[in-house]
Hints:
- The chain is mainly alpha-helical.
- The protein is 88% helix and 0% strand.
- The chain has a domain at 192-350.
- It has 12 helices and no strands.
- The two termini are 16 Å apart.
Amino acid sequence: MLNKTLVKRIIIIFALILTGIIVYFNFAALMPVLLALLTAMIFEPFVKFLMRKWKLKKRWIPVSTVFVLFLIVSSLLLYVMLTYLIESLIDWSRQIPTYVNEIEQFVDELIVAFEQFIAQFPQADQIVQALDNLADNVLSTILSWSTDFVAYLYEFIMSVPNMLIVGLVYLITLFLFSLDLPKLMNNFFNIFKKETSDKLRYVFQRMGKVFVGWWKAQFIMSLGIFVLCYLSLLYIAPGPALIVSFLVWLVDIIPLYVGPALILVPWGLVMMIIGDMTMGIQLNVLAIILLIIRRIVEPKVLGDSIGLHALPTILSMYFGFVFFGVLGLILGPFVYMAFKSAKESGLFDIQWNEKEKRDEPQ
């Protein structure tokens, strides 16, 4: 009996390791499906709430409601961001001739002043030659950067159809997962014996509470970011302070690592390009400060909300980043909590000696 149990456990461990290796090396291809499953699990409490509220037994109405709300909020957020960015670029493009003339006039004046200054030195020709070489190197570097930028822009444009297909697959998979999530979970639990199934149910129930705690932490931190951003923008740009702070809040509550920088950095760069260097620098500094504050506060708030100490939280986020990149910063604490919950449920308990004693003849 001991040998059969040992072989079975070795096979299970080997299958889990093999599955982990396959997921790791094909993570990019599996990401839409895994992200859809994760989103469906996050939305499940809302679906159950609507089922209880409306006293429904079938899931398709609550699932459709949550799915449509998710589409509406995502579409509105994307529309506002793209509209603001496009309007800013259009306004900037209209000012390009003025900027070109101002830059050309500035460069001409600078050249004249430099020639008058250089003429006072006995080795003016050598200095001018060295500066010409330096200018050629700078121009070639700028040309190389421009070529790389155009190549990246071309690759991004060519990848748009693939992004649309991946997004469509994600949305369809999300809806189907949400519709059949309880059935899928029951089928998964039924694979195992009742004792193991009960332990796995405990793990998933605990992870459900972790999901709720994680969203609670995100909401608390995003409110703090909203207040800080709004108070800062009242000084930097009072006009759009409220609407921009609201956009920052929406982006920050979504699990994106960059958070406020996704709104403030492009805005700051546009301001710097159109000539308002002070405002541009202030916006970029604000984005950096908000990002640093969030990264410092996040382990503590997140740990308290999901039941972890700050040190395991920050370590799980770090190792998640090392193995899975930016997305690992989000998945790291969940993976750690999953192993911790599995250990608490006794899923990893191996009592071969006790089994052997029970199997021995009395």
